[in-house]
Design goal:
There is one protein chain. It is built from 14 helices and no strands. The chain is mainly α and 341 residues long.
Length: 341
């Protein structure tokens, strides 16, 4: 896809503005809820926890801020930034603006792992572990099949293999939705597949943070080479880029990041597909990764706040992201159609 004409205006100012936007959304999300809190309450709770002293606010306020809202906000930041970053690198790597983080079957693999855990009545931690392992295993299987086929167009083979593995795992998930207890297990499976941050705690954040950091390191170190990967493989190799190994490293990093995010949030679509397009409108390719992560984090925190505020019951995140993302994506498609290839 060619760059949007507005991307030439990008620069550090755009990144700074997106950072301010993220901070504002975080503050808004922490303040929003059925139990009222003030910015002073938030500051007092955070300072007390950091200093190890006793909080000066009421115990209920302390619990709401520290154990309920801040973990959800932190999860929104990690999940949104991870999915957006994975989408940005996947779209550049596969030279396709319609690619999303689940193109190689990572979401389908995570879904299958989580559904198996719920079907076997495992603990929440075990379900998250199976979801994480399932996502990684699905992409490993895709790459194993790709190494056997060894066609001239590795990108096409990877995408087609990912679609096939994703469809197969989706069928397995559908089968497991028929077998479980319809009163307890089936609602839990359905709710997980729709995505939610309702039960997030500090332990969940700490469980995925190392994977996100490890995955982010090669993305940052190889970000300039990833821009060259938007060229044909022969052109990229002529410029000194070892396309095969870079593709393996970046796919592994993006898969690790996506699997970690999905393991605690369930399946949340459209972020990895939509956010990179929005980021390109602001910063182009030069700062696409940080811009995507900032926008993805702000968007996820905002949508999660909306999900728990617009109705008496919490709306699943997958429904809201699709309801918001699909019309906006169509708008982008119609307004930037001349820039698409």
């Amino acid at each position: 896809m060619q760059q949007h004409p507005k991307t030439q205006r990008a620069g550090p100012i755009a990144i700074g503005a997106l950072t301010v936007l993220l901070v504002a959304v975080i503050l808004m999300a922490t303040l929003t809820g059925k139990y009222p809190v003030t910015p002073g309450d938030i500051l007092a709770v955070v300072m007390a926890k950091l200093s190890g002293s006793e909080s000066s606010v009421a115990p209920t306020v302390d619990t709401v801020v520290w154990n309920v809202r801040l973990p959800r906000v932190g999860a929104g930041i990690l999940v949104g930034a991870s999915l957006a970053a994975a989408g940005a690198v996947y779209q550049g790597l596969f030279r396709n603006p319609l690619v999303s983080p689940d193109i190689l079957g990572v979401s389908a693999g995570a879904s299958f792992g989580a559904v198996v855990g719920i079907f076997l009545s495992m603990s929440v931690l075990a379900i998250q572990g199976l979801a994480f392992a399932g996502g990684l295993a699905a992409v490993a299987l895709v790459y194993a099949i790709d190494s056997i086929v060894r066609e001239r167009d590795p990108i096409l083979v990877l995408v087609l293999t990912g679609v096939a593995i994703g469809a197969l795992l989706g069928a397995c998930v559908s089968l497991l939705k028929v077998l479980p207890d319809p009163y307890n297990q089936l609602p839990a499976i359905t709710f997980w597949l729709l995505g939610s941050l309702a039960s997030i705690n500090h332990a969940d954040l700490l469980s995925i943070l190392p994977a996100v950091i490890v995955a982010l390191v090669p993305m940052v170190l190889l970000r300039w080479r990833m821009n060259l990967m938007t060229l044909d493989d022969e052109e990229a190799r002529a410029l000194g880029v070892e396309t095969r190994w870079i593709r393996i490293v970046i796919v592994a990093a993006a898969t690790l990041m996506t699997a970690a995010a999905v393991s605690i949030s369930g399946i949340i679509g459209w972020i990895g597909l939509l956010v990179p397009h929005v980021a390109r409108m602001f910063v182009g390719l030069s700062r696409l990764l940080p811009a995507s992560m900032l926008i993805g984090a702000a968007y996820m925190v905002g949508v999660d706040t909306l999900a728990r505020s617009i109705a008496a019951i919490e709306v699943p995140l997958g429904i809201l992201t699709a309801a918001i993302g699909a019309p906006f994506f169509l708008y982008l498609l119609l307004t930037t159609r001349r820039g698409w290839q």
